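Hey, weird one. I pasted the Leucyl/phenylalanyl-tRNA--protein transferase sequence into the form twice and got a warning about non-standard characters only the second time. First submission, copied straight from the form history:
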Amino acid sequence: MNQLTADDLIYGYINGIFPMADADGTLYWYSPDPRAIIPIDSYRPAKSLRPTLNKRKFEIRINCDFEGVMRQCAAPRTQEDGTWISEDIIKAYTDLHDLGMAHSVEAYQKGQLVGGLYGVSIGAAFFGESMFHTVSNASKVAFHALIEVLRERNFRLLDTQFMNDNVRRFGAVEIPKLEYIGRLRQAISLKTRFTEQALEPVFQRVA
């Protein structure tokens, strides 16, 4: 395909597909069956995370360093690992962020970005893409903050694409592709906004 654009991403998400890059940078579109989602209403933080939330060990910011979060997510976890987040993907999602449709939730310590996640919002659907941490629990706290935003903004769908151990610990479940498409159609038809401003305070509350 030609260079990935923000319009390509919008078209893909509203039709239940998303891009990933091979090691050589070639882009492919995916539509898993079954599909992994995290029920927004039933999420509860792990008991082991609650002391971290209560002590407010991290400062949470939204959309302060979107590209920085993407580049941290793109960094190989080990020397042997590759990444599916190519430069073309970073450019397209950053453009989508500039349009107000892609967002990052970031965790900071002493002013340094130490964890976070990013994804795309359309209507009342949020499509989680990737997360990272350089300090223990930073990405978990960022995810907790994400859930708070989604609940406050009346989001109806949190898509996590594939099932793996990382999303399973947040309560992810698998549903058939056909059911996912139905939930997707309903969620994107609703009107809400992930955030009203580029920077908005997030108050961590232990559910």
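That's the output from the first submission. The warning seems to come from a hidden character in my clipboard, not from the data itself. The first strand starts at residue 18 and ends at 21.
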